[in-house]
Every structure is written in C-alpha cells, then in structure tokens.
C-alpha cells in the first residue's frame, strides 16, 4: 500500500511517500506564491525518485498552511496533528514535540499512543519562529542553513537584549558596526531564538522524550541551546526533521486506507 | 534666567529654551548615531535661534532614551515625567497623555498638579510604537511624514491582519502586489497601530481629557485613528507635539534652578 503526505508551508513545501512501514522517498522545495503549483511540483519530485506516478498513490493527505489548496489530496489535516503523528511514528517514546516553522512555532505534548494532550502555538510574533532566523541571516549576508555551522566557531557569543525581531535587528546592526565576528553574532542569534522557543515549550510542560521538527531542527546551534535551556537532550529523528509534517500526513493517509 | 530641556530620542533629538514662563526657542533634528552629538547639535541650534550661548543657561534637564548622554545636562528626568509636565503646563485640563515615540509608546495619567497617577509603557514589541509606521513607510517607499496626508485620501481603510512588524511588512508587500491602493493601506496601518496603543491606554483606564504627544501626533491620520480607537475626542496640542518632552524637561529645570539658584560657570 503506497500513500503520500504533502505539507505546504509558508517557506517550503514537502512530500513524503510511504510504502507500508517504509519511507520510499521524500522531497522538499522552496514554496512559490502558488500553493497548488508548489504541491504538484514537490509531489512530482518525490514520485520521480520513487519511480511512481499519481495512479500508484492509494491516498494522499495534505497539511500545512496551504493544505486546503492542494489539488490531489483526499483529506487535509492540521500541521499540529501531522507533526505529532510523524514524530511519534518514527520515535514512539517521544512525548514533547517542538516544531519551528517558517512563520510559527508549536510545542505539542502527546501521550504514549500519540494522541495530542496539549499544545501551544505562536504565529503572532516573528520572534521565536523561523522568520526570526531568516531576517537575521539576511542581515548577516548568510544563507539560513549556515547560521548553525557558523555558530560553532563562536568565541564570545553576543547576548541580544531584545525579544522583538525589529529591535534585535537594530542590535545586530550595532554589533556589525563594532566588528563583532559573524560567528559570535550567529551564536547569539541562535541562543536568542532558543530562549524564546523554550518559553513556549515550558508553557506546555516539557516531558521526555523531546524532539524538534521543522527546518530549524537542522540548526545545531539552536538545538544545542534548546537542550541547555530546557535541561533535556533532544532526540534526533531518523528522517529529515523538516519533512515530519509530510510524514505525519502520509501516516494519516495510511490509517485512512486501513493500514496500521 | 534662561533654562533648557533636551530630549534625546531614538529617532529625533529636541531642545527647548525658556526664560521664566516663556518659551524662547525650540529645535528638532534627526538623531545622530551618537546621542552626545545629537544633544550638542540640537542644543546649539536652539541656542542660536534664541541668540544665546550655553553659558547663559542656568540649568538644563536631559530626558529621553539618550538622556544619560547629554553632556551639558545638570540632571536627568524620565520621559514619562517630562511628557506629563509639558502637556499639562500647556493644557491644564489634560489628565492623560498618550505619547508615541520612535521606539516606544506610553500612556500617562496625571492628577491636577501634573503628578503621575499611573502609566503604561511598551518598548518590548515594535508593533505598538512609531517603528511600526517607520518600517511600513520604508516598505511602501513613502516618507513617514507623508502618511497622514496619504491616508486622508482613503475611502475605506483595509484591515491589516498581522500585528508583528515583521509579518505585517510581508502583508503590506503582498497588498501592494495585489493592487491595493496606498491610501487604503496606510489608513489600515494607522487603525492597526491605534488599536494597540488604545489597548495600552485602556490598561490604566481612560480619562476624558486626553492629549497626544510625540512625533506621531503630527500625523493627522494617526491622530484621527486613535480618537476612533479610544472612542474619545483628543485634545490637540497647540504647539509642536514632538517637543513636549523637552518642554517638560525645561519646566523641571526651572524648578531646579529656582530651588538652588545655581548659575552655570562653564
């Protein structure tokens, strides 16, 4: 039984194809202005890799901010449910999932069966979302994915006093003018990001095991700072954390087809 | 005896010179990177207008975010106290002051003697401050001071759904791309900021006699939007609302000079 999940986010669009208990392919692209187009494109990529066509897909579930506009899905499910589902499917011991998306952040608590107990989400304030890092990376003239690596070379990480992205931007500019190294800036930025997300996570109650999903989970600087802030290790997932929503959607599709 | 007030804000610096109960001169400049430089330049300009030099000033009070960097200040006072003092001196009936600055917003309640009863303050989130309009003006490629004029042409303000400066900026860009008209967007932004500042003011309970100070008060669209959000007619400042902090500082300087009779020697 082959099923698929497609996650249309604000920044990236992801697809996962599942054959029973095996992920046979996944794909990720930058979202375009058109959610339909992004969804079709990423799905084609994933199917190409797997050597499949749409006729082979038994059922597809859509998720993410553009989930209502995916043409080929049979059902749309919230990102919160999908991230929880995907993470729990890969790592059944997980109880707290912290998902940092391009323009939001969620902390989700689940029970041993994977059901959602509680969640909190921030999509009102850019600080503590992927957008914060995106703005800062641009300011430093870096690619978003270089922030984590660069922060490993930090000697004296800066401390950002402001929470607000707009004020933090002014602070970073001030540091740039005083020739602070980009590594020290990157590390301070990652720590500020983690501090903000940790507050959200604590408000939902952090219970082990804990994992991070979403693109920011690939930033080692943020992950390390989160571990320090929360005092728990972050369990690594055996699949790109950024496709976790799409994986969860695919697991929902499998359940819909009657598979366990 | 001449006294002075100097208000070094995040975006602009203001200086005001008084002789007894009369305002002799005032000046406003855009803030320089160094607050000391802003303070010196704006004070020199105000002194020049008054035909005075620094040695004529018996006492000067510094205020604003850069108040501790005003090299010639004899003492410093918080902006909150200065805005309250300045506004009530001009308009004794006023018991509440709403000040929207370049990177903060304040709501201040005063008693009959101009003392502060309560105040609320936001400098944590840029979206409830003048920075919100500054960022949006930048995104639209218009001048901050033109926003009032532009919004006056709006037929119906748009609703801006994002509060966060960062998210709202993206929203504005997509509204422009979707062919929405600037007046409608700008008046929507005024409404948006007005709602947040009104919520701040409501937190300390409204008084019926309210005025608005700070540079944003010069924006007629913002002034009207705040009246609408508060459901109260605001008292309009009869003088430049941007210099009220410096005025309050000068008034405090007058008290101090009267008290100690100190004459500047430098």
Residue stretches of chain B low in confidence (pLDDT < 50, at least 5 long) are 261-266
Q: What is the assembly state of the chains in this entry?
A: heterodimer
CATH homologous superfamily assignment of the largest domain in chain A: ATPase, nucleotide binding domain
Classified by CATH, the class of the largest domain in chain B is Alpha Beta
Q: Which sheet architecture does the biggest sheet of chain A show?
A: 5 strands, mixed
Helix and strand composition category of chain A: alpha/beta
Query: In percent, how helical is the residue content of chain B?
Result: 25-40%
Query: Order of SSEs of chain B, N→C?
Result: EEEHEEHEEEHHHHEHH
Summarize the SSE layout with pairings.
The complex is a heterodimer of chains A (260) and B (266).
Chain A: E1 2-8, E2 12-19, E3 22-30, H1 35-50, E4 59-63, E5 75-76, H2 79-90, E6 96-100, E7 105-110, E8 116-122, H3 130-140, H4 146-151, H5 165-177, H6 182-204, E9 210-213, H7 220-230, E10 234-235, H8 244-256
Chain B: E1 2-8, E2 12-19, E3 22-30, H1 35-50, E4 57-63, E5 75-76, H2 79-90, E6 96-100, E7 105-110, E8 116-122, H3 130-140, H4 147-151, H5 165-177, H6 182-202, E9 210-213, H7 220-230, H8 244-260
Parallel strand pairs in B: 1-4, 4-5, 6-9
Antiparallel strand pairs in B: 1-2, 2-3, 6-7, 7-8
Helix pairs in contact in B: 2-8, 3-5, 3-6, 6-7
């Amino acid at each position: 039984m082959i099923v698929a999940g497609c996650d249309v986010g604000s920044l990236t669009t992801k697809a996962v194809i599942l054959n029973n208990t095996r992920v046979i392919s996944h794909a990720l692209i930058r979202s375009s202005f058109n959610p339909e187009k992004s969804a079709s494109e990423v799905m084609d990529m994933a199917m190409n890799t797997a050597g499949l066509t749409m006729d082979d897909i038994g059922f597809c579930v859509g998720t993410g901010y553009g989930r209502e506009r995916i043409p080929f899905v049979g059902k749309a499910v919230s990102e919160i449910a999908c991230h929880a589902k995907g993470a729990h499917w890969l790592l059944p011991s997980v109880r707290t999932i912290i998902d940092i998306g391009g323009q939001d952040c969620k902390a989700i608590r689940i029970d041993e069966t994977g059901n959602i107990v509680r969640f909190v989400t921030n999509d009102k304030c850019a600080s503590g979302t992927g957008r914060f890092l995106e703005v800062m990376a641009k300011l430093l003239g870096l690619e978003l994915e270089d922030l984590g690596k660069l922060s490993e070379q930090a000697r004296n990480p800066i401390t950002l006093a402001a929470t607000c992205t707009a004020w933090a931007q002014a602070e970073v500019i001030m540091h740039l003018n005083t020739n602070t190294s980009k590594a020290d800036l990157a590390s301070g930025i990652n720590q500020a990001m983690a501090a903000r997300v940790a507050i959200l996570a604590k408000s939902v109650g952090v219970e082990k095991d804990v994992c991070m999903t979403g693109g920011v989970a690939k930033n080692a600087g943020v992950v390390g700072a989160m571990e320090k802030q929360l005092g728990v290790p972050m369990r690594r997932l055996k699949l790109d954390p950024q496709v976790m929503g799409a994986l969860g959607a695919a697991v929902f599709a499998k359940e819909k087809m009657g598979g366990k | 005896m001449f006294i002075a007030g100097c208000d070094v804000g995040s975006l602009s610096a203001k200086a005001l010179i008084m002789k007894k109960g009369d305002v002799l001169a005032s000046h406003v400049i855009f803030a320089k990177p160094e607050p000391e430089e802003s303070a010196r330049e704006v004070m020199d300009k105000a002194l020049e207008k008054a035909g005075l030099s620094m040695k004529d000033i018996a006492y000067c009070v510094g205020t604003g975010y850069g108040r501790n960097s005003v090299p010639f200040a004899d003492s410093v006072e918080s902006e909150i106290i200065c805005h309250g003092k300045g506004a009530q001196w001009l308009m004794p009936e006023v018991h509440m002051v709403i000040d929207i600055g370049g990177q903060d917003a304040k709501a201040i309640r005063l008693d009959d003697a101009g003392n502060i009863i309560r105040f609320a303050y936001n400098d944590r989130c840029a979206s409830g401050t003048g920075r919100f309009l500054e960022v949006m003006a930048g995104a639209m490629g218009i001048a901050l001071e033109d926003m009032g004029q532009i919004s006056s042409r709006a037929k119906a303000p748009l609703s801006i759904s994002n509060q966060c400066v960062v998210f709202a900026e993206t929203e504005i860009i997509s509204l422009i791309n979707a062919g929405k008209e600037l007046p409608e967007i700008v008046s929507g932004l005024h409404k948006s900021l007005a709602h947040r500042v009104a919520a701040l003011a409501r937190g300390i309970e409204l008084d019926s006699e309210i005025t608005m100070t700070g540079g944003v008060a010069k924006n007629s669209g913002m002034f009207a939007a705040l009246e609408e959000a508060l459901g109260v007619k605001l008292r309009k400042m009869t003088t430049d609302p941007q210099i009220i902090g410096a005025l309050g500082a000068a008034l405090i300087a007058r008290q101090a000079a009267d008290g100690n009779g100190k004459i500047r020697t430098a």
